[in-house]
Amino acid sequence: MLLQNIALVSHLLPLFLFFLFFRRNNERDIRVILFYCLYSFVNDIVITHLNTTEQYTLTFILLSAFTLIEYALFSYVLYINIKKAIFRKLILIISPFFIVFSIFQFLRSAGNGIDSISITVEYILLIIYCLFYFFDELIEPNATFIYATYKFWILVAILIYSTGTFFLFLQSSDLTPEEWNKWSIINHLCTIAKTAFFSVAVIMRKEPQENHFFDVDADHLFENHYKP
After folding, report:
1. Predicted structure pTM score
2. Cα(65)–Cα(220) distance, rounded to whole angstroms?
3. What distance in Å separates the CA atoms of residue 111 and residue 114, rounded to the nearest whole number?
4. Which end is more exposed in the chain, N or C (fewer Cβ atoms within 10 Å of the end residue's Cβ)?
5. Region class of 227: left (phi > 0), else alpha (psi between -120 and 50), else beta
């Protein structure tokens, strides 16, 4: 219960740091992530209340809506940070199919537990999109280290959460409430890690200094300091 509360409150950390470092956080992706954190916080509070009152149908609706909104927000963040046109087009092509698929799964499930299939497909797609970004960075010459940009920490947060909870949600429909309470620690830990990396992205300067560690001044290197 303590870990669950820490995970819940951790969503507020990026929001607090945003106001603390307000002047360096005008980027669209940062604001989208902050909206996601606020939405997650409110959604978790409502779902916790509904579970205590055993309103499971409404809980299922909120969880299904969260899957779609989470996918839309994270996909948008990835889309605006990926440079290669083919990868951006793939995101635009795949997203409508996923939305239709999720709506179909929602209607087919009719409120029977968590929609583990939609969540699993969502995380597979987000992992693929994250790989698009890292492949972009790999082939693109850059004067800065990849971890010196705030975008890297946003992408790492999404990737860690998606991969860390992938197998948990894959099996979630087969878990009993007791088993879910036992294994949900994975979700709480990944949530804390996710918000921690989002917080790093918020406090970082958005225009990192270029790295000149490997720069070599050839004229200076071969200059003859000892004249005969």
Report:
1. 0.85
2. 61
3. 8
4. C
5. beta
